[in-house]
Specification:
Helices cover 32% and strands 21% of the residues. By secondary structure, it is α+β, with helices and mostly antiparallel strands. The protein folds into 3 domains: 157 residues, no CATH class; 142 residues, DNA methylase specificity domains (Adenine-n6-DNA-methyltransferase TaqI, Chain A, domain 2), CATH 3.90.220.20; 151 residues, DNA methylase specificity domains (Adenine-n6-DNA-methyltransferase TaqI, Chain A, domain 2, Alpha-Beta Complex). The protein has a 5-stranded mixed sheet. It has a 4-stranded antiparallel sheet with strand order 4-11-7-9. The longest helix is centred in the middle third of the chain and has 44 residues.
Length: 472
């Protein structure tokens, strides 16, 4: 890639966004380079239309790596009865009406015949145009096409067909289009491997974070020395196992000065929610040791006054009474200092701890670390559920308060360190994606000559079908 150079000679394209193009390239309107076809939706009330073998593509399917794996399949009769038509393999498919058009234009090439819904459009390249080149041209210049093709609708963005059809695009020769497609296919594979490696690193960082928390809050290591404690004893609790000899084992309720759950039944329903008032803590707010503040709900102070005491104040321990394997029941977090007036909803428990015995954050992290092991307390085959009394009876192990504080500070420092590492890796992924977009744009508009590079790559690397998949 570092050996790529501009073309030897350029000319003015006459198109403002395109600027100069290689001297031997053509510039033409999209409507002369492709033929367009749209789609439609068969009757939803006719069940026989929806048990066929023909993939039916809608905007939601355009994020998939394989369009043949669409959610819906229809019959030939459904195609005949609707405005849909069969699109032969090799067409360039774009979303023309969807909220996603506020951010990006999904584009793909179908590898099997399929039908489209009315929010999609197919472009069948005419002689002299390669589908792979056209797809790259759209992918590499998303920002421009978003402003050039879209119009603001009442609820969604849509692409104006007139603007789409009259777009002026660069058209290199077919051999060059093939060379561009080969080069970008190889470059895309390479960049995707880098991104997958970085994503795996993020997964490993998260595994390391959770393992560190588990070892610290269950006494597997002494955070002051980085080594195991000198002596251990049997906790008598299966999911706790052996604990440091000087740590106590108590029921959660024994170190709480107050506890409650949320109101059940008709006392609190979604219809009671308002834009402001008393914050309602729901299951989605209770993360793995952290309060998730991005999904908020409120009720009026007047309605809250009728419900009894389900209050939440800063530093209260919040526990989820319902969950699954990925988000287990019994996970916990601490109410943040800025929570304001708040209450818990059904299946959420609030424990107000005796701060002379237990540090809320330490207890929350230990409950999270042992939640799956403690799932024997839960009822239900597919979803785990515990009630308030069983949660109060759940056993925890506690070191002296000074040691709890030391563990909390150690984990806070480790959390900051790992968050910084994760942020650095996420930034690397972002830069790789930006580089891929810029590379595609420069190649498909002739800013870089890849003809010799593509030939060398095609000799060294077996061909693949991975180029220009939906962004990873």
């Amino acid at each position: 890639m570092t050996a790529m150079q501009p073309y030897p000679a350029y000319r003015n394209s006459g198109v403002e966004w395109l600027g100069e193009v290689p001297e031997h390239w053509e510039v033409g309107r999209l409507k002369y380079a492709v033929s367009f076809s749209g789609g439609g939706t068969p009757s939803k009330t006719n069940a026989s239309f929806w048990n066929g073998q023909i993939p039916w593509v809608s905007p939601k399917d355009m994020t998939r790596n394989r369009l043949s794996d669409t959610t819906d399949h229809i019959t030939q009769d459904a195609v005949a009865a609707s405005a849909a038509s069969i699109v032969a393999a090799g067409a360039v498919l774009v979303v023309v009406r969807s909220g996603i058009l506020r951010r990006t234009i999904p584009v793909a090439i179908n590898t099997v015949p399929m039908a489209l819904n009315q929010d999609m459009k197919a472009m069948r390249p005419r002689e002299g145009i390669k589908s792979e080149y056209l797809r790259g041209l759209i992918q590499g210049n998303q920002s421009f096409w978003l402003s050039e093709w879209t119009k603001q609708g009442a609820t969604v963005e849509s692409i104006e067909h007139r603007l789409l059809a009259n777009s002026r695009i660069p058209i290199p020769s077919l051999p060059e289009q093939r060379a561009i497609a080969r080069f970008l296919d190889a470059a895309d594979c390479r960049i995707r491997r880098y991104i997958r490696a970085k994503e795996r690193l993020i997964e490993l960082l998260e595994e390391e974070r959770r393992a560190t928390i588990h070892e610290a809050v269950t006494g597997r290591i002494d955070v002051r020395t980085g080594q195991p404690y000198a002596a251990y004893k049997d906790s008598g609790v299966e999911w706790l196992g052996r604990v440091p000899e000087h740590w106590g084992v108590v029921q959660l309720g024994r170190v709480a000065v107050d506890r409650c759950d949320g109101p059940f039944g008709s006392g609190l329903k979604s219809s009671h929610y308002t834009d402001r008032g008393v914050r309602v803590v729901r299951l989605q707010n209770i993360g793995h040791g952290e309060f998730r503040n991005d999904d908020s709900a409120f009720i009026s102070t007047e309605h809250y006054s009728k419900l009894g005491d389900h209050s939440v104040v800063p530093e209260d321990l919040l526990i989820a009474g319902l969950g699954d394997r990925n988000h287990p029941a019994g996970r916990a977090c601490v109410a943040p200092r800025e929570i304001g007036p708040a209450m818990v909803k059904a299946d959420c428990f609030r424990f107000r701890l005796d701060r002379l015995q237990a540090l809320p954050r330490f207890v929350a992290l230990q409950l999270c670390a042992t939640a799956l092991g403690a799932a024997g307390l839960s009822r239900g085959a597919t979803r785990q559920r515990v009630n308030l009394s069983r949660t109060a009876g759940r056993r925890i192990t506690l070191p002296p308060l000074t040691e709890q504080t030391a563990i909390d500070r150690f984990l806070a420092a480790e959390g900051r360190r790992m968050s910084a590492r994760r942020a650095a890796v996420e930034r690397e992924i972002e830069l790789l994606r930006e580089y891929r977009t810029r590379l595609i744009a420069d190649v498909v508009t002739g800013k870089l000559d890849v003809r010799q590079t593509a030939v060398a790559r095609s000799r060294a690397v077996a061909p693949t079908n991975s180029a220009f998949h939906p962004p990873t």
